[in-house]
Design brief:
Elements: H1 2-22, H2 25-51, H3 60-77, H4 81-91, H5 94-98, H6 104-134, H7 143-169, H8 180-191, H9 203-209, H10 219-226, H11 234-259
């Protein structure tokens, strides 16, 4: 019964949020322009860099494939729970949301997925079509790599969500939470290869990234797709992802229990 109720609320939230977004045509145009401008800016930047001959660790096609796949997957994996939690605390809606029969986590996921659907239609789709036609993207190196990529991507999404939730829960102790999203993005940009592929990093920084969970969210799955991580390393990759999921889940559950005793509503 609880699962059915959660599923219904999940569907209702997504339907409501997507309908509200597409009510305004300006949102659709803005989304398309954002994706295309980002693609054009990256292509111009990396074309100029590769023209100098200084980028010897990759090709332009491989690098652009990395960024296009990264941007598209980020729409579904890069959650913004801190924004939702901070907004609920500031408005006082957190009290009502916590006493609903559906877990607060389900409400957060539904709101995030509603944003993901609209961004996929308005931003990701035009960007992908344009990149395939005018730039050319690399296909997966093999069917085995594609399968491992999908498996690693699913686990990577769990890792990202757990990290996001852990950071977002600190909003219950803070008077302001707007900077939590920036802090989380900075961690994944610096240590997760979200802004620059790790193969361009110096060795000492790569060594730091390898002992942290952030690269396993997006960078490692995309590296599998590109063939930089061989299929023969599947056991190690999936094992490390499962290890970090267990560690992060235990941390998330412990922190969530603490939030039950530290709830300050500002504005409700």
């Amino acid at each position: 019964m609880a699962i059915t109720t959660a599923a219904k609320l999940y569907t209702m939230i997504i339907a409501k949020e997507t309908q509200r977004f597409f009510t305004y045509k300006g949102n659709i145009l803005a989304g398309c322009l954002t994706g295309l401008l980002m693609l054009a800016a990256r292509y111009a930047l990396w074309s100029a860099l590769f023209a100098t001959g200084n980028a010897q660790d990759a090709t332009l096609t491989e690098t652009m494939t990395f960024f296009v796949i990264n941007d598209i997957l980020a729409i579904w994996l890069v959650s913004q729970y801190s924004n939702f939690i901070g907004r609920d605390i500031q408005s006082g809606d957190i009290a009502q949301r916590l006493i609903r029969p559906v877990p607060y986590h389900v409400q957060l996921v539904a709101a995030f997925h509603a944003d993901a659907i609209t961004n996929t239609v308005t931003r990701a789709a035009p960007m992908l079509i344009t990149a395939v036609i005018f730039i050319g993207l690399m296909p997966p190196t093999s069917l085995g790599a594609l399968g491992l990529f999908i498996a690693a991507l699913i686990l990577g999404g769990v890792i990202y969500s757990l990290v996001d939730l852990i950071i977002s829960y600190t909003a219950f102790w803070l008077t302001e939470s707007w900077y939590l999203g920036w802090f989380k993005r900075a961690l994944f940009i610096l240590f997760g290869g979200a802004m620059l592929p790790l193969w361009f990093y110096p060795d000492w920084l790569i060594a730091i990234c390898e002992v942290l969970p952030f690269q396993f969210a997006l960078f490692v799955p995309i590296s599998i797709y590109l063939g930089r991580v061989p299929v023969t390393d599947a056991g190690f990759v999936l094992g490390m992802q499962l290890f970090w999921i267990v560690v992060l889940y235990l941390c998330e559950r412990a922190l969530w229990r603490l939030t039950q005793y530290k709830l300050v509503v500002q504005g409700g």
